[in-house]
Amino acid sequence: MFVATDPSSSFTVPKRKILTKEDLQRFQESSAFQEYFAFIERLNESIKSLKLSTDCVVSQVVQNIIDVLDIVNSYCEEIPPVRNEKSRFGNPAFRDFYDRVNNTAAEFHENLSIPPAAIPEISRYFVESWGNRKRIDYGTGHEANFIAWLLCLEKLGFIGPDDYRSIVLRVFHKYIEVMRTLQFQYWLEPAGSHGVWGLDDYHFLPFLFGSSQLIGHKYIRPKSIHDKDVVDEYSKEYMYLACIKFINSVKTASLQWNSPMINDISGVKTWNKINEGMIKMYKAEVLGKLPIMQHFMFGSLIDFEGSLVNDEDEHDHVHVHAFGQEFPDCCGIKVPSAIGASQISSREASAKRLPFD
């Protein structure tokens, strides 16, 4: 249900409050969890069986959000990577990009007509959507911040159910496109040693929403992801196939070896079953994992009372590891960018791949 928050209410800059397994368990039983997860489900339902090009109502607010994402993308174009060709790790120029976004976030939200008192709270989610400044990495926790930002916009009354279709097909898809640009431009490291538990190195939700798009498709079956022609032809219309094309572009081995979970999922008979499984998997493997959710933040719009880090540095907070329960670790082990590796290889090898590559 769409509920607007009173703009005159007090706002709080979001902080981390999930620091222990007990915090995580309380969060999973909280209204904040229900609100966030229900929002994901509503967005998922809104784009079932729809192509990216499907006509949808784009309100002025939604168009303004798209314009903001275009501006963020322009920052990437204006800030070239530092010459660091022999390193597969994140490029330091990303920090300049991050600072540019951080320094202009308030202006973005003023242009969206966000109440001034709410801007410090909602802009924190927006800034954290683009990755970690210090580690130069990106993962599902950052992706979750973007969804949290959209949820805050709904709670403030700026978007509602009539916008859900355009939020996924126009806004979220644009966000993923900008993130792919960042990943290629700055060789962002995946936030975790195995990315998103075997989906792709960075994202989860394009698979969830993308499988919803494909429900009931007459010709494209789950096993069609192994058909390069199908992937190439339909990747511009379906997020799931765009993800497969991305993986194929940066990893030379077959899905069986570089993405075994996706390979296994392709054996499921229907997209409906895959979508149902993705929803359960997101709940368990993203929202249910301490290494990811310890980075999630709470303020007044998304409210939860767990532990609280006092005098927390905004970008260099302590990371909690729950050994024996969560895998993989979210940090501490630098993971080189597969994108960087592929681009280095393409420069060092001939354009034609070796048959045993």
Features:
357 residues; mainly alpha; Four Helix Bundle (Hemerythrin (Met), subunit A); two-stranded antiparallel sheet; 15 helices; disordered N terminus; disordered C terminus
Structural Rg: 20 Å
**How much beta, percentage-wise?**
under 5%
| Regions with little confidence, pLDDT below 50 for 5+ residues | 1-8, 193-197, 311-317, 321-330, 346-357
* Class inferred from helices and paired strands: mainly alpha
Distance between the termini: 51 Å
> What's the name of the CATH homologous superfamily?
Phosphotyrosyl phosphate activator, C-terminal lid domain
Number of strands: 4
Question: What's the rounded overall pLDDT mean?
Answer: 85
Total individual domains: 1
CATH architecture: Up-down Bundle
CATH C-level class: Mainly Alpha
The ordered string of helix (H) and strand (E) elements is EHHHHHEHHEHHHHHHHEH
- The CATH topology name reads Four Helix Bundle (Hemerythrin (Met), subunit A)
Number of helices: 15
What percent of the residues sit in helical stretches (DSSP H or I)?
40-55%
Strand order of the largest sheet: 1-4
Function: PPIases accelerate the folding of proteins. It catalyzes the cis-trans isomerization of proline imidic peptide bonds in oligopeptides.
Family: Belongs to the PTPA-type PPIase family.
Subcellular location: Cytoplasm
Keywords: Cytoplasm, Isomerase, Rotamase
